[in-house]
Amino acid sequence: MPTKNIHIIVGARPNYMKAAPLYDELKLQPHFHASIIHTGQHYDQEMNKVFFDDLGLPKPQVYLGVGSGTHAFQTGTIMQEYEKILLDQRPDLVVVVGDVNSTIACALDAAKLHLPVAHVEAGLRSFDRTMPEEINRLLTDQISDFLFTTCEDADQNLKNEGIPESKIFLVGNVMIDSLLKFIERAKQSDALARLGLLKADAAVQPYALLTLHRPSNVDDPHTLVGILDALNTVSERIPLIFPIHPRTLKQVKAFALEDMIWHVDRPESIPLDLSPPKVITIPPLGYLDFLNLMAHAALVLTDSGGIQEETTILGIPCLTLRSNTERPITITEGTNYLVGSDPEKIVSQSFEILETGGKQGRLPKLWDGQAASRIVRILTEVL
Amino acid sequence: MPESKTKTTPKKIHLIVGARPNYMKAAPLYEELKKSPHFEITLVHTGQHYDEEMSGIFFQEFHLPKPQVYLGVGSGTHAEQTAKAMMRYEEVLIASRPDLVVVFGDVNSTLACALSAVKLHIPVSHVEAGLRSFDRTMPEEINRLLTDHISDYLFTTSTYDNSNLSREGISREKIHLVGNIMLDTLSRYLDKAKKSAILARLGLRVGGCIHPYALMTLHRVSNVDDRKVFSRILSGLDQAKQQLPILFPAHPRTVQRIKEFGLAEYFHVFDAAAEPLTLDEPEKIIIFPPQGYLDFTCLMAHAALVLTDSGGIQPETTFLGVPCLTLRENTEWTVTLEQGTNRLVGVDPDRIRGETQEILKSDRPSPQVPEFWDGRTAVRIGEIITRDKADA
Questions:
Q1: DSSP conformational letter for A270
Q2: Where do the DSSP E strands lie in A76-199?
Q3: I need a surface site. Which of B146, B333, B365, B366 has the fewest CB within 10 A?
Q4: Is the CB of residue B113 less than 8 Å from the CB of residue B150?
């Protein structure tokens, strides 16, 4: 059997934990040769390295270095740069994951050159076309040859869009592969101690964990003030730890809202003062550290996609600060609640969860750590 | 800024053109929307088709004004063209924030500008939506598919297009069957085109009589860049070319290919400026430079038979009632096969030969034109846009 060359595309942090298990599985097969292509859409080199090291990913074989910019700039630049690589290397398969600009850009390049495309995490729909990710997902799915889905509702979404069933493969959630593989190691990370979240008796100090980065939440000052206001109210009951996305910090500063957060640039050197009320922002964390914080949190508040799934697996209550989600299974089966950006709802739902512990979730089908091996088994058959 | 708009402020509409096949689609809509005081129309040319001179002629023929915005994208690979059009048009969008972006057809500019607009939450209209060849190796198919999935208004040419879009889960309220806008242009210019002197120049009009001829166009890479395929097409015409002259307006690039492939013996290269055409070389296919819209339409309207691998000529011949053989394995214009004069023959010599003979032997088909292919498509689109946008 001749070796098949496979490109795995990563562009931004949420892609890394989806690519890693797949890369590991492909490496085990002598008939596949996998390369990691990094578009450089996320360009914080230091943080990229922490994530790659945490996940055991190799240095990318190709780095396109597109950097930040508007959607058209990023998508266009990636398209031009990756097309050159494709013309030169002509891989047997291009694997794209998730829904970032790199996902659609590289899939479109490949489709135009008649190279097969596999989309991992296909079929997710928020039905909100104002989300750039929704556009990326929708278009990537239309031009992919193999659509690997995480759940049955994703399959249904794809069928509704006329995608033939023969292209759709329900394999489970590769991100959960990473989570299950690394959770024990993550729990040994010293992040809790480093951030002063352990009490004298080594018990964990109760805290809530927060992430917030979506343009719809952080680009409008009125919305952002409302959310921060609600978070400050929540922090009267429980300290909030907020690893802050650079774009969110930029907006907080731009709108002069620094007094609504307590920013600690080097939490390792200053023990965090957890006395309420406080929304404590710290620099972004690596994969293992963040996973550890998530696993021990009393409550997670987020507007991210992946965290809704990770909290469901960890059994941690999650409040999603969005008016819709492309991952409804985390609500119907998991521990997730959709609260939007309405301050009152954020506060009341948080308080309720802190009192009751939130709903008991169950694990969605096939979210068992075997998704990548299912994908590789299918690729072995079809390529 | 929406707040600064009063009721009388016209809504800004961008019409996007990138390559020649777009012009005859944009022209009728430009004229229609221009009439309305509710709209301020901007013609945006991406410059995807870089043949300035040729573009100039086409623009004049359709009475299109000089584009207010020219993006100068130029030629390049698919990714280069698409990326440059996306990036340059995004800058225009951010600066001028139109209320609606109208894209046409299926070129790279179509997808690029639609994608830039949708990411900025600006509504997109796709004119000629829902066409599907189901051949993903055609770059146009990818462009059509993706543009349709991000458009807010899908203006379709036939019920086949509507079915395609419905099958892809696109909601019914976005889909508007309005007919074929290209035929607005054709019906408007047909009489003028028929008066063109091209037939006389070619020596095909003698007095009131027109000498029967066939017309061929080939431009697809899969047909003209592959010697074997090209030869197969030519051998399929061996019988026909003894029966009537076959006219072949061809791009200089194709002429070059013919020489490289050693196929020159099949052709008579005709230079109208230097010589009058004599029809005493019946064995040869008559090759001459591409013609403008009116001259080409005249040639098409009077042909006994058209052979083509183009998209647009299939509906045009159906509209004209001229038999058409499409030298492709599939078509996005299913309606022209089911209701029109078109037949799909691929590049198999026996099929080309057989179908050609059948057409030449039989009477001209009585034209059956699909619903709404009546020259009033732009009016219908204008009504829908006015209804939704004028007072919005």
A1: S
A2: 93-97, 117-122, 146-149, 168-170
A3: B366
A4: no
CATH number of B191-361: 3.40.50.2000
Within 8 A of A108 by CB-CB distance, chain B residues are 79, 82, 142, 146
Reported CATH class of domain A185-356: alpha beta
Helix (H) / strand (E) element for A350: namely helix A343-356
DSSP letter (8 states) at residue A265:
S
What is the rounded distance in angstroms from the CA atom of residue B281 to the CA atom of residue B373? 39
CA dist A297 and A291 (Å) reads: 10
Torsion of CA A52, A56, A61, A63, to 10 degrees: -10
Measure CB to CB from residue A72 to each of B78, B116, B150 and give the nearest one. B116
pLDDT value for B277 = 66
Q: What is the pLDDT of residue B53?
A: 54
Contact between chains at B79 and A70 (C-beta distance less than 8 A) = no
The complex scores an ipTM of 0.94
Fold of the domain spanning B2-180+373-390? Rossmann fold (3.40.50)
Q: Sign of torsion, CA B76 B78 B80 B82?
A: positive
For residues B116 and B73, the answer to whether their CB atoms sit within 8 Å is no
Q: Which of A379, A290, A243, A304 is nearest to A12 (CA)?
A: A304
For residue B268, indicate whether it is catalytic: no
Nearest CB to B169 within list A70, A112, A162: A162
Statement: residue B88 has pLDDT above 70: yes
Using an 8 Å CB-CB cutoff, list chain B residues near A130.
121
Residues 6 or more apart whose Cβ sits within 8 Å of residue A224? A217, A218, A251, A252, A255, A257
CB atoms closer than 10 angstroms to residue B61: 20
CATH class (in words) of the domain with range A4-173+367-382: alpha beta
DSSP A57: P
CA distances from A152 to A122, A221, A282, A378, B42 (A): 11, 38, 37, 18, 45
- Alpha-carbon distance values, A224 to A216, A247, A257, A349 (Å): 9, 13, 9, 18
Q: What is the arithmetic mean of pLDDT over A345-368?
A: 96
> CA quadruple A317, A320, A325, A327: dihedral positive or negative?
negative
B205 pLDDT tier (thresholds 50, 70, 90): confident
Residues of chain A with CATH 3.40.50.2000: 4-173+367-382, 185-356
3-state secondary structure at position A58? coil
pLDDT, residue B20, reads 84
pLDDT of residue A274: 80
Domain limits, CATH 3.40.50.2000, in chain B = 2-180+373-390, 191-361
Using pLDDT thresholds of 50, 70 and 90, give the confidence band for residue B5.
Answer: very low
